[in-house]
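4.2 Preliminary Data

To establish feasibility before requesting continued support, the project team ran the inverse folding procedure on a target of 247 residues. The structure was first converted into the token representation described in Section 3, and no sequence information of any kind was made available to the design step. The complete token record follows.
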């Protein structure tokens, strides 16, 4: 009897474990995925504050004015900024900060890419949990890069994976606070002082955690011009080259 009871408990425990990582949404009941997909996992911290032009700490490179405007409608792409202005070589990337425009589950996939003249290559890609799925524009997420990138030179791209779903209208959805994953973009008519840097990197995964590691080109500029609310903190990313004060 004791062995039979233990066997039953073991079966129940295994069944419970199998349910972990499957996320559904009441509005989209057939939409399921394994969010982490074997990636490194980091839990994002954040502060829930009304979006407004913010002041960033020293060594945070920020192109945005912290005012969410829309989501890019592209699917299965990394949407973010090409960081070039204000970058001093060599530099490190240790932390990211961003706002989402829309989010389906409790997390997103972030990545940082090395930019060469003819291609871009993933330096780090990881799954970030702890991102809300409603009223996401009010959530400023901050999270460490799983393994800090050091000694890097040249420009780089950092951003968030836009969902690959098209059956739910994600390929046309640009509104704020919906359920199609995507980082918040600022309005193209509002230049915070360093120009516009938002770009798309096309992926070919068809899954929540895309396997693409290298792409041709250095990202396609988003039109109309915009900046992603996606910032990178590290050494030699000097805030004094920007028009922002120290918090």
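Position-by-position output of the design step:
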């Amino acid at each position: 009897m004791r062995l039979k009871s233990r066997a039953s408990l073991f079966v129940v425990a295994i069944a419970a474990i199998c349910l972990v990582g499957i996320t559904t949404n009441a509005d989209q009941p057939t939409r399921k995925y394994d969010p982490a997909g074997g990636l490194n996992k980091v839990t994002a911290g954040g502060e829930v504050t009304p979006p407004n032009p913010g002041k960033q700490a020293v060594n945070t490179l920020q192109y945005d004015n912290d005012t969410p405007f829309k989501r890019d409608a592209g699917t299965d792409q990394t949407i973010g900024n090409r960081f070039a202005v204000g970058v001093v070589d060599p530099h490190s990337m240790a932390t990211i900060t961003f706002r989402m425009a829309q989010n389906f589950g409790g997390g997103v996939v972030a990545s940082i890419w090395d930019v060469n003249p003819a291609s871009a290559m993933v330096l780090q890609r990881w799954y970030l949990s702890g991102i809300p799925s409603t009223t996401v524009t009010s959530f400023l997420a901050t999270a460490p890069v799983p393994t800090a990138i050091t000694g890097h030179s040249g420009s780089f791209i950092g951003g968030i994976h836009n969902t690959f779903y098209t059956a739910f209208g994600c390929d046309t959805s640009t509104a704020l606070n919906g359920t199609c994953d995507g980082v918040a973009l600022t309005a193209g008519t509002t230049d915070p002082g360093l120009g516009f840097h938002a770009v798309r990197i096309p992926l070919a995964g068809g899954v929540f955690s895309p396997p693409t590691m290298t792409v041709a080109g250095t990202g396609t500029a988003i039109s109309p011009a915009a900046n992603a609310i996606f910032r990178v903190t590290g050494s030699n990313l000097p805030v004094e080259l920007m028009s922002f004060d120290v918090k």
